[in-house]
Amino acid sequence: MILLEKPNFNSNFMQKQMDKDSKKQDYLAIYNPKYDFLGQSYASIYPNLHKYPATMLPQIGLELLKEFKAKKSNLLDPYCGSGSSFVSGLGYGIRYFVGFDLNPLAIMIAKARMTYINSSYLIQQKEKLLRQIESKNELSLDSNPLINITNLDFWIEKNAQQDLHQVFLGGGY
Ligand SMILES: C[S@@+](CC[C@H](N)C(=O)[O-])C[C@H]1O[C@@H](n2cnc3c(N)ncnc32)[C@H](O)[C@@H]1O
Fold first, then answer.
1. Does the C-beta of 102 come closer than 6 Å to ligand 1?
2. Ligand 1 test: best mutation among 77, 102, 108, 151, most atoms within 8 Å of CB?
3. pLDDT per residue over 6-18, tens digit each?
4. Residue 73 sits in which domain range?
5. N or C: lower Cβ tally within 10 Å for the chain?
6. Exposure pattern of 6-44 as b/e (b: 16+ CB <10 Å)?
7. Which pLDDT value is given to residue 135?
8. For 118-152, how does the pLDDT look when each residue is reduced to its tens digit (9 = 90+)?
9. Distance CA 140, CA 106 (A)
10. Dist. CA 106 → ligand 1 center (Å)
11. Single pTM value for the model
């Protein structure tokens, strides 16, 4: 992974490679294989609940928080996507997160990632949901709570809408 660093910034990166033109630039290019995480996946440190485009490996964020000795107070990610920066923060010891995203699916995934659920309650709800789904062959989308999302078809595929509707009905939302 290549990172950009301001010259004279006092960090402890080990391997620095200044390219020929870097003196003319404001930032130096730094290569540090520590950030490659070869052979690792998202799920190596945290369950990857749902696919989302352009997700960051939370391992990267975690290393950067350590590298820059970030405060363990709170973390704001204004383009949070599915919340990978929050996963990094959680691993680092941060417990207060604020995020924004245009995409309602991103918010849903990020909230699910950051919501603590007691495991016996979760198993209970899963069984309730499966019973609900088995008892309904077809669901109408008329009472779908997702219907309030602007440009719903743009953000969430039809079959995913149907699945989410079942989840909402089953979970009693
Ligand atoms: C590269 S993704 C972030 C992915 C995230 N790091 C993760 O691992 O899931 C960038 C995000 O910015 C969001 N975005 C783009 N423009 C935005 C805007 N103006 N306001 C809020 N979010 C925006 C996109 O919806 C997308 O989820």
1. yes
2. 102
3. 665 555 544 444 4
4. 46-116
5. C
6. eeeeeeeeeeeeeeeeeeeeeebebebeebebeeeebee
7. 73
8. 999 989 988 887 887 777 655 555 566 787 888 88
9. 24
10. 8
11. 0.71
154 Cβ partners below 8 Å, 6+ apart?
Answer: none
Tell me the CA–centroid distance for residue 58 and ligand 1, in Å.
15
CA of 107 to the centre of ligand 1 (A): 10
Summary mean pLDDT of the chain: 81
CA–centroid distance, residue 109 to ligand 1 (Å): 13
Percent of the chain with pLDDT over 90: 43
User: Which residue's C-alpha comes closest to atom 5 of ligand 1?
Assistant: 81
Which amino acid would we find at residue 105?
Answer: L
Amino acid identity of 71? K
Find the CATH number of the domain harbouring 94.
Answer: 3.40.50.150
Residues 108 and 160 in one domain: no
Give the whole-number percent of the chain exceeding pLDDT 70: 77
- Is the same domain home to 69 and 130? no
**41 within some domain:** no
Does residue 100's CB lie within 6 angstroms of at least one atom of ligand 1?
A: yes
130 neighbors 166 (Cβ within 8 angstroms): no
- Residue 171 resides in a domain: yes
| pLDDT computed for residue 80 by the predictor | 97
Residues 69 and 124 in one domain: no
